[in-house]
């Protein structure tokens, strides 16, 4: 579904992404791991259109999407969440979901005057869908709660719910587990797996919790110093000498015998 070819993103003399190439296959939950500063979030930002690449290209379903704006990628079904949830804090959870789909009838001045029936019909459909999403995520009891009052984990669930309000093809999750307690993290993981298995979502996720990655992801891609270092199953990654060295600063071969 997504192919990244020799991608570079430089900030002056700093090469945050330095010739990364990788593929995200349709229907997978792909993990992206690596030490801090490896270039993972910058790679996400380039793929999702928040940053232009210095060079290289991104291909989605055989079409070059390099440099397209986030709203253009949104309409192609490429969505991205953030490490810090971006909710509309003064709006209810239900309202946060209902505002996601673009080109709503109520956005037109003409419809506001002469198409009120159409607006009402559309809003009723959006409300029904929002309630279904909240039920799927097991937070329907919070539908009328202001999003700003939610816990960190609940905000992450709500952000995941926003991707369900449109026809998402691939969702990039940036540290969905950051600051989330174990119970809610399990709920988030269950929702991701169900979206993948039942609704055909493709995911790519940055995460530092290797147990969480191991539970959900295959394959796992490792980045270090802006490059792709390794790819494989979680067990293969954990046993990879280059990966161990990137994380710990020394490989197994350099360890003294116990």
UniProtKB/TrEMBL annotation:
Superkingdom in the source lineage: Bacteria
GO cellular component, one term: plasma membrane
Domain ABC transporter: 2-250
Positions in coiled-coil regions: none
Keywords noted in UniProt: ATP-binding, Nucleotide-binding, Transport
GO molecular function, one term: ATP binding
Gene3D superfamilies: P-loop containing nucleotide triphosphate hydrolases (3.40.50.300)
PANTHER family: CONSERVED COMPONENT OF ABC TRANSPORTER FOR NATURAL AMINO ACIDS, CONSERVED COMPONENT OF ABC TRANSPORTER FOR NATURAL AMINO ACIDS-RELATED
Protein name per UniProt: Branched-chain amino acid transport ATP-binding protein LivG
Source organism of the structure: Salipiger mucosus DSM 16094
Species lineage: Bacteria, Pseudomonadati, Pseudomonadota, Alphaproteobacteria, Rhodobacterales
